[in-house]
Every structure is written in C-alpha cells, then in structure tokens.
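Predict the structure of Delta-aminolevulinic acid dehydratase.
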Amino acid sequence: MYAFHRGRRLRSSRTMRNLVRETRLSNEDLIQPYFVVESDPGLRREIPSMPGQFQLGLDELMIEVGGAVDAGLKALILFGVPRHKDPEGSQAGADDGIVQQAIRRIKDNWPEVMVVADTCLCEYTSHGHCGLVTPQGEIENDSTLELLAAAAVSQARAGADIIAPSDMMDGRVAAIRTALDKAGFQNTPIMSYAVKYASSFYGPFRDAAEGAPRFGNRKTYQMDPANAREGLREAAADIDEGADIIMVKPGLPYLDIIRQVRDSFDVPVGAYQVSGEYSQIKAAAMNGWIDETAVALESLIGLKRAGADLILTYFAQDLLEAGHF
Ligand code: PBG
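Done. Here is the predicted structure for Delta-aminolevulinic acid dehydratase.
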C-alpha cells in the first residue's frame, strides 16, 4: 500500500494527457445554427444580443456557409425569418418559403453538408407562438400537428437531411413521421427537441429569429425547468413515436438531464447550447473577464462528457475557422 494516490502522474505532459483523455470534441460533432432572412438577399445584420452572429439574406448565407464548409463544418441548422407572418404561420410550409429556398441552394452547392431544418411555427406566426391560438388565447395542440407535418414535408421536399421539430406539441413526432412516410421520405430522420425547457436562456434567439410570443409565454407547452423525470417521459414518448435522435435544450444548465437521457435510452442524444449560453460567454469575454475560446471549448466538452453525441452551438463556425479541431 502506498501512502497516497498520485493522480498527477497522468497529467505530466500534453502527450500523456491526450493519451488518457476520456472525451473528445470534433468538428463532426457540431451543428452551426444560421438565421436566414427573406426580406433582402444581401442582408448581413449583426444580432445585437448575439455578437458575432448574423441575420443573413440568402446570398450572404451562401457566402457564410461556404467559409464554414471550407473550415470543416459538416452540419448546420436553419431558422427562417419570413417577410410575411400570419396567425397560421403559413410560410413555415411554403415550398418557396425562405428556409426551403435556403435548403435547396445549400444542397445544390454542398450536397455532402448535413442540413437540419428546425420545424416550428413561432418564427412564422404573427402572434409568435409555436402553435395555433384559440380566440381564448390558448395554444391548440391537435390542430397544430397538421401544419407542423406539412412544414416538415415541405422542408424534406426542399432537400432537408434531418427534420427537427422544436414546437413541443404532443404527438408531433408521430404526425410528422406519418406525413414524411406518406410523402415518400421514409429515410429522412427526425431529431426531436424532446426535452425542451421553458427557458429564459432563449432570449437572444428571439431577437435573432424575431419569434418572441406577442402575449403570454411558452410554459403551457415547454417544460418546467424544475423537472427531470418528466424529461425522461418526453424522451420516451418521442422515441415511441419514431424520433431517431433526441435533443435536450438548453445545454449547460441541464447536464444532469443529458446524462439521465443518455443512460436511459440507446438513441443518439443531441444537446443545444442555446443563444443565452452563447451570449453570456461572449459578453464576459468582450469585457476581458474570461477567455472566450477556452470557456466555449470547456462548455462543449462538458456537454459531451454529460453524454451528448452531437451539439448545436453558435461557436461551431468560429472554432472551426480558428483551426481548433
Ligand atoms: C423555436 C426555437 C427556439 C429555439 C430553437 N427553436 C425558441 C423558443 O422555443 O422560444 C431557441 C434556440 C436558442 O435560444 O438558441 N421554437
């Protein structure tokens, strides 16, 4: 018996540390979100609450994606900001909608890039909710499913590789799966935002996607941050309904949820490092209080260590372009 354990033996050099490293981060794990705006193809407007992230017109999006792909980006997710919004969010399912156009152009230029389509109504509805609203101001579940399914089919028709429903209506994975299969897209996977919390960390995103609810909040459909067991039920339901990949969102405040979901199910698990997580790091770094890259990488490795197989992060492109992988 020795007197004490010498953990430092395996930390003595970079090579030694790399040899025993348990978790690795690679460009192949990361999905970069982009906000594509319909109003002006040449638009490039920095999002005030997300420094370094932009609302992009179609032409600018192509330039941005081109740079990211050259740097090693393998996957991206698109959010649309349409010119016209209405109570039904009809642009979400329009074949010439802004996201559908963007998907087609990206797949034409870079067929190998994995294009994920966020499927939701909130960016497209005039009231900013993720579902249809009754005259009493309630968010209607079942009548919304048809619209979500139509949006998903239209995104798949445009060439989306993965459909990612983020609305949190009950039954939407089943509705989308059925509609995709009927339209001939049996091979298009669904990555559901299965465990999505009603989080204040989405604040900056709502500026970026211009999808803040005009009244009330999302607490009747997104989850209570206090609940973990409920998250497992949500994940189980989505897997039952046909989800191929499930996602936990936000990321860092919910590492315990990622771990429990990872241990409870055998499907791939995604984590979304959301806008507020990004903006916190950016703001502190811009003040000189923390090292942006180091903190971003530490947060991402934390998400992987907790059990995430893939990560949606606004840092993806920057890290790649800076040569971090
Ligand atoms: C749409 C959607 C949201 C996010 C992703 N998809 C906003 C919301 O639910 O309010 C948030 C992403 C982020 O904050 O980075 N429903």
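The domain at 23-322 is CATH 3.20.20.70 (TIM Barrel).
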